Amino acid sequence: MEGEGNAERVPQEQTRLVGDLLKQSGVTQELIARWSEEASTAFKVFCPGLPGALTAPTLSRMKTGSGLKKLKRGKLQLLHLTITYVNSPRPEGEGAVRRALAEAEAFADAVLSAGGTAEDLKLSRFNPNDPRHDRMADLFGGHGISLLEHAIAQNDASSFREIAVLQWLSGNSDDARHWNECASQATTEALETLDAEVAVQEAYALGLSYLFESQGQVAEIYLALAAESGHEGAALLLREAGAWDELRRKGKNRSRFSAAQGSGHGEAGNLLPNPENELAEG
């Protein structure tokens, strides 16, 4: 009887969403239980709040609501991440990991929203009344808000550092120092001192990373800031965006960009070989 009482506290719409995810994924609960510990280990460095694993009984309760008072965000995230991990056990690059985490968080948000519990939702970490948050939104729009929310939600050092770089190159040195301090507190690794030269190089490297993830509009933010600060490689990419896009689609140029990440303008000429020659190889 106690289990039945608890089950009533989990809205049916929440359990329906969990059931739909399991059905649409094609991944059995047995597989999820078997792989969840490995998935948790793989993603925990980016999402410290994940539980260690999901057992088969836990998955059944999440699907039916039986014996539960409420569904928990961390377990919902790990469920989604494990399904992703089963389908692609070795996500390539930080961009793929970030996408997986964002999708898992969006799923958890959707399920918790269906329950209508304000305490569990915590949908947005963006605070428009905080001047530092407001400046991120004003300067970088949706990308700025998304980056800020991810940094705060995951206590992600790399995202805090990214914000610091953006603000440094935008002339907001006080904000940059604040976010860089957040990055330092979120990791045990020593961060390179942030100054004008380091900010330019990191913005250029981030621009390349977003280009490879096919996020051209976001990449332009970083490349434009680097170019405005005198990075000729970034300026060249912005001028030759059409040629670069063709080369990227052919998959011929990734190694050149990877080798040149963070390099100065002296190697900029190596980034864009003759497009006609490269495309002819395809």
3D structure, described in words:
With 282 residues, this protein is mostly helical. It is 71% helix and 0% strand. It is built from 16 helices and no strands. It has helices at residues 2-7, 12-25, 29-44, 56-64, 73-87, 93-115, 118-121, 131-154, 157-169, 173-185, 196-212, 216-228, 232-239, 241-250, 254-260, 275-281. The model is unreliable at 1-8, 117-123 and 250-282 (pLDDT under 50).
Report the mean per-residue pLDDT as an integer: 77
Order of helices and strands: HHHHHHHHHHHHHHHH
Note the beta-strand portion: under 5%
Give the strand tally: 0
What class, by secondary structure content?
mainly alpha
User: What coarse outline follows from CA principal-axis ratios?
Assistant: elongated
End-to-end Cα distance, whole Å, is: 67 Å
The percent range for helix content is: over 70%
Number of helices: 16
Largest sheet at a glance? none
Residue runs with pLDDT of under 50 for 5 or more positions: 1-8, 117-123, 250-282
Radius of gyration: 22 Å
- Quaternary organization: single chain
